[in-house]
Amino acid sequence: MPKTAYIYVPSPSRENLEIGLNQGLWGWRSSALDRASARQAVQSLTEGDFLILGHRGPNSRVAPGGWANVTLQRVIVTQVSRPYFTDSAPVWPDDAYPERIGIDVLEEEQDVHGTALGADAMEALRLSANKQGAAVLQSGIAAVAQLADAFPPAPALSGDGTVDHEGADSAIAQVLVRREQAKLRKNLLGGATEAACALCGRVLPIRFIRAAHIKRRSAAGRQERLTMANIMPACLIGCDELFEHGYVYVTDTGTIAVSPKSNTTPDLAVTAKALEGRTVADYGPHRAPFYTWHRTHIAN
User: Are 7 and 128 in contact, with CB atoms under 8 Å apart?
Assistant: First the structure.
């Protein structure tokens, strides 16, 4: 059964929190895991388990259950992407935090009331606050599901244009990734009812347009996933799939080229060839590094 770990991050550790989220890492001082079964709890986390980080809550030195109705200024839902390992390579400025796990950020919200997580989850965060940020485990993912339902509705557009290229490994993770996609679409398309595909240039109703990551979401860091320079409008009438799987790519001059991969079938080659030589929309230095990554890692 999947597990959920709860970790409280105090206000003075705000910089460390940002660094960890951007690097896709969380770590502990060895002294924090030396007590009781703290290390065993972290070592038991496997890829796909959830980890919820709570930040900036009230005084934790209260009776059990005392956090059931308080508000945390920030809650971040992550999934374990790499189980427990040790590494002393510098990441955080104040200490090594050598006992680490890899995390994938799925969602984050501000001013989350205890009822959104539930009393058990809030108690786990309170206990973590009193244990130097050690992970407090609970079996199952009920609190994650409850939190996903409690989050404000994602911005709605006419048709969501969502395609799951990332292979999210649980229904809850898919819900949270779709929320991210909806926010990106809102930023990219605003209140438009139609938009042009960056690759083929066809103007289509937005239900046929995806806010596509140029550098794949699974390979991008947290900031890269959310920067609009890494997002392009790609139509679902072929261009999104052609680009996603590297049948076409964008050169360092901003023109579309065809990969040898497209020769898999004659019809695929003809479809990809139709885009060859076009200039991708809104190409520039802000997007070039992301197209370079795609060209290097996916198209070749």
Answer: yes
